[in-house]
Write a structure and sequence with these properties.
alpha+beta; 4 helices; rod-shaped; binds zinc ion; DUF177 domain-containing protein
């Protein structure tokens, strides 16, 4: 996921390159991202290279309902602008000052290599689902007897009352008593 963009930087505004990512993997923030696939388009703007990538990947997490391992599919459509360290390759003066926002992950290095790895890793991580599931219809853990209901069909499910409604029932009961 490292691209030489020297020809883009010395070329014309609007020049572009297309790349495919096939079955790559990377580790970021303790997450192992695998089966990274998709297409990357690099386009020269006036001072930067605009990256547009449609990427899918998978990672492993715990199912939020049954806590068993879950394979999580992620999809991102990322758009980032990379600025060249060799500012003299692009038109116009380099107006970057120390005060400007400067993200190391979005710099094209002195050798004109654009490394997508870090920013793509960040984009994929931010697309991780908050509540991953091992499967869409995971039945989760029984709150009464704690069995994994995907494996064991316990008999608690039908008789158990949702604790929120049980609390409400108590309140109404007490209310009725004090009114007497
Ligand atoms: Zn599950
Ligand atoms: Zn049960």
């Amino acid at each position: 996921m490292i691209y030489n963009v020297a020809s883009l930087l010395t070329g014309n505004l609007g020049d572009s390159q297309q790349h495919e990512i096939e079955n790559e993997s990377l580790k970021t923030n303790g997450h192992s991202l695998k089966k990274i696939n998709g297409s990357v388009s690099l386009m020269r703007t006036d001072r930067t290279v605009l990256v547009n990538a449609e990427i899918e990947a998978t990672t492993h997490d715990s199912c939020s309902r049954c806590l068993e391992p879950a394979t999580v599919n992620i999809f991102v459509n990322m758009e980032e602008e990379f600025s060249p360290a060799n500012a003299d390759l692009v038109d116009g003066p380099n107006n970057r000052t120390d005060d400007d926002y400067y993200d190391e992950a979005l710099v094209i290095d002195e050798q004109n290599f654009l490394d997508l790895t870090e920013s793509l890793g960040q984009a994929l991580l931010s697309a991780l689902p908050i509540a991953p599931l091992c499967k869409e219809d995971c039945l989760g853990i029984c709150p009464t007897c704690t069995v994994n209901r995907n494996i064991i069909r316990c008999s608690c499910a039908k008789s158990s009352v949702d604790p929120r409604w049980a609390g409400l029932a108590n309140l109404t009961g007490k209310g009725a008593e004090s009114a007497d």
